[in-house]
Amino acid sequence: MPEDNLKTSVLTSLFWKLLERGGVTGVQFIVQIILARLLLPEDFGVIALIIVFISISQTFVQSGLGTALIQKKEVTDEDYSSVFYLTLGVAIVFYCILFLASPFIAAFYNQPLISPVLRVLGLTLFFGAINSIQNAVIARNFQFRKLFISSLGAVLLSGGVGVAMAHAGYGVWALVGQQLTSIIALCTIMWFTVQWRPKLLFSLTRVKELFSFGWKLLVSGLIDVTYNNISSLVIGRLYPASMLGYYTKGQEFPKVLVSNINSSIQAVMFPAYSRNQDNRPLVKQIVRRSLVTSSFLVFPAMAGLAAIAEPLIELLLTEKWLMCVPFLQIFCAVYALWPIHTANLQAINALGRSDVFLKLEIVKKVIGLSVLAVTIPIGIYAMALGMVVTGVIGTLINAYPNKKLLDYSFTELWKDLMPALTLSLVMCGIVYSIQFLGLSIWATLILQIMVGVGVYVGLAWLLKLESLTYMMNTVKEYVPGRKGSC
């Protein structure tokens, strides 16, 4: 694809991806506020435990093959259909495993409700298998407008179901109904918006070819999902379900915000990396632009969220959720590092080096588990802080291979990140100090948000930060027929 056409495709796709994630996040944010007010922290704790087992199973179902379909230069109907039937078969196997194991999991955690809930929520595996192929088709063809329509429709419908069930007193089943409705609605809408249907085709040769790339992502994804959720498994065993509810709710706010910004950028950038995998200098240029842009947005978002955490939680979720504030602030630091992780790892995958990706995941998880083992006896807050330590170490590990693959040095990396990081920390200090003025909660929160935005954007403009200039110029140039460099 010519460079000018690449930029047009990337910018168009990024617009729709950001719009999709923004719309979905906005609706989800409102739904989660309502549900948190109607339900108890222990309801969210039970669901958090169950999601761990669903996520691990979903990793096996997808097996890295969805990413392999995106990464492959040429894909046929035989590829899509073969992957579809394989993932559907794996979904059946893992649903049976969850169905049979659910009573034992419930007994281990002394939560009888886990068994029936896990059996119902496990049905999402089948729809996830279908959706993984639909997402691959969309990503390969940069059709993110269709994803916007499908995702927004699904979240509106599922949000209504969840709130209605919670208001009717269904408790934890309201969360089950919301999640099950979401994936069913998403698959159904995409069935009509995405021009793909499975055909009666299956090639073991094609599967082996894709799996030669995807199996490393499967192992990497399995390690990553298990590692990211092992804290929940430990907390669920050692602490009351309500404490796990506080932990997951504190994690949820920064995770949703960052994942929507960062995943929007990376979902569009990965196909761009893959299409130009033979042009290493261009891939490096795209990686740097991705890092600079995402950090310019993510760093201040996380710094600002940490600064306004207490009044925000009290106003939105009420005082019963204030115990999640320390976790929210800690996880802001954890998720601020995500742009560094994902940009480097996406580039490695796009270059076809999933073997390097797997090695990195193993090294990082060994370090992370070691830190976790040390912090478990200290307490739940130490476990959360340990994730910040492993996150910082992980950024260095993820960036290391690209010194050789892309000639992207650590010096260049930190030079790209430091402007946004410095301004974000300055802004955070100023915003946090406003709470000592003795104003009402509403006045404090409004003033903090206004000052935070003003300080960050104002300083970026005064210092003529390249990131701000690039984004402003991109918006100005983003009209049909205009050309620019990527």
TrEMBL record:
Assigned keywords, A-Z: Cell membrane, Membrane, Transmembrane, Transmembrane helix
GO cellular component: plasma membrane
Species in which this protein is naturally found: Methanofollis fontis
Parts of the chain that traverse the membrane: 21-40, 46-70, 82-105, 117-138, 147-166, 172-194, 286-308, 320-338, 366-397, 417-434, 441-463
Bilayer topology annotation: Multi-pass membrane protein
Top-level lineage group: Archaea
UniProt keyword annotation of Membrane present: yes
Pfam family, one: Polysacc_synt_3
Family from the record: Belongs to the polysaccharide synthase family.
Name of the protein: Flippase
Location in the cell: Cell membrane
InterPro entries found in the cross-reference section: Poly_Biosynth_Transport
